[in-house]
Design brief:
Length: 166
């Protein structure tokens, strides 16, 4: 089977090709004032995701979040967190896979969570599949100078809804 995505190449005929949006749903992280940090529940930061392809089980950051926040911005096994924005184009769309649920945790507004529908993506597969540099380039195409991201980082969520995956 052929695909329109150059870096994917030929796809075995017994594989199913579908859009990421059919495999799960995406959400932006919590935005909260600086006075709420330093105590409370676990807070997954941009740095936690950017530095780790597998999210650590124990997170150092703390934030005062509500039970409602902890439900809306939860961090569960199988989630894939992506860096959403950065000072440089090269740091956008870095993934980190959650291998173990972090109770009461919330994730930063500079991140996007992709939560696969139950049973559709194995977390270990996701850990390796989403590290593909071609996928990052697809989410963030560079302009002719190589310095700007087209489309802008905010549209990473839109790409996750419409991008094809195998």
């Amino acid at each position: 089977m052929e695909t329109t995505v150059d870096w994917v190449g030929a796809i075995p005929t017994d594989w199913k090709m579908t859009k990421l949006g059919y495999l799960g749903r995406s959400a932006n992280g919590i935005t909260i004032g600086g006075d709420f940090f330093g105590s409370g529940s676990p807070f997954v930061s941009y740095s936690d995701v950017y530095k780790n392809r597998q999210l650590p089980e124990f997170i150092n950051g703390l934030v005062q979040s509500t039970k409602s926040d902890q439900i809306s911005y939860s961090v569960k096994k199988g989630d894939i967190l992506f860096t959403r924005t950065s000072e440089t184009v090269d740091e956008i769309a870095f993934p980190s896979v959650v291998m173990k649920t972090i109770p009461d945790a919330v994730f930063a507004g500079f991140l996007i969570r992709f939560r696969p529908y139950k049973g559709l993506l194995d977390p270990l597969f996701s850990k390796y599949a989403f590290q593909n540099a071609g996928l990052r380039d697809f989410f963030c195409k560079r302009d002719e100078t190589g310095h700007s991201c087209i489309p802008q980082p905010r549209s990473l969520t839109e790409h996750a809804r419409s991008s094809s995956a195998t």
